[in-house]
Amino acid sequence: MPGSVTVSIVTFNSRRYIRRCLESLFEQTLRPAAVVVVDNASLDGTRLILGEFRDKIRLIQNERNVGFAAGQNQAITASRSEWVLTLNPDTLLKPRFLEKLVSAGEQDRKTGTICGKLLRIGQDFEPLPERRIDSAGIYFVPNLRHFDRGWNEPDDGRFSRPEWVFGASAAAALYRREMIRDVSLTGAFFDPDFFAYREDADVAWRAQLMGWQCLYTPEAVGYHVRGIVPGSRRPNPPVLNMHSVKNRFLMRINNLTGDLLQRHWWPILSRDLLIAGGCLLSEPSSLPAFWRLARCVPKAIDKRRQIMRRRRVSDEYLASWFQPEPSAQPAAAYALR
Prior knowledge:
- The protein has a domain at 238-312.
- It contains 10 helices and 13 strands.
- The protein has helices spanning 18-25, 46-51, 68-77, 97-105, 177-183, 199-209, 238-255, 258-281, 288-309, 315-319; strands spanning 5-11, 34-40, 58-62, 83-87, 91-93, 111-120, 133-135, 138-140, 146-148, 163-165, 172-176, 213-224, 329-330.
- The strands form 2 sheets. Strands 1, 2, 3, 4, 5, 6, 7, 10, 11, 12 and 13 form an 11-stranded mixed sheet that branches.
- α6 (199-209) packs parallel to α7.
- The longest helix has 24 residues, at 258-281.
């Protein structure tokens, strides 16, 4: 279905946000071909709200929380459209968000992922005193940490032009079906062993290795509440901090090339020692990450073999994305419309 979009949403106790999110979705100038919502055994009344939209959505109800990654895979598998928009329930989209993303993506078939400008918004979707960026794509630094580009910076025009970026936050990312098929491993787009957190960065890295590009287009504007705030771990649920630790290493097993390790071994090792020490001394609830990681290693090694066999980019190209400062490249060929 040329130009068609399936919107994929995973909910887990999302009653506070999901109604407003869906309402903004059904006000889009480009109407989605399908909206698939996967509910991970919510207990807070989320399913009652989803029932109000039963004529407009396809609802998949899991009996347990299978995680964000596996839930998104369920929705993606259940759809056939040319594009898939992964959407968090704590987002609001401006009416032309989908239209602008698809328009940008259709200008070049090498573009596998498109992201817009996400702005911060209050916990109850109330406007903040100053417009600030939530995400304008994601980037990596040499110690293999990844961040949302522009996080908490003023929306003052510095992110006003189309740019190539490393990847997109899955809070609101548009993926080309052709790319999804190309980079999936044993039929899974997001790695289900991640459960939740960092799965979008893993996909971005894998897609870059296989030659797919990610475009940031500033005319697609949305708002994101964001439950996990960068640099602030203590307020987070311990289980998410644990998955964050596990997934940092799992993502590396999947994707890290020998060249990148040789270039950046010292900042990588320094960060690893800091994480291990932090788990031992101040965050023991994250220590199970290491035995969970050990259980995932055999499958991760097999995934790594698949990825490296399908790699299509040079060491130099990949290294250009792992810089001390946020990396982006001008996309002059993309006209704002």
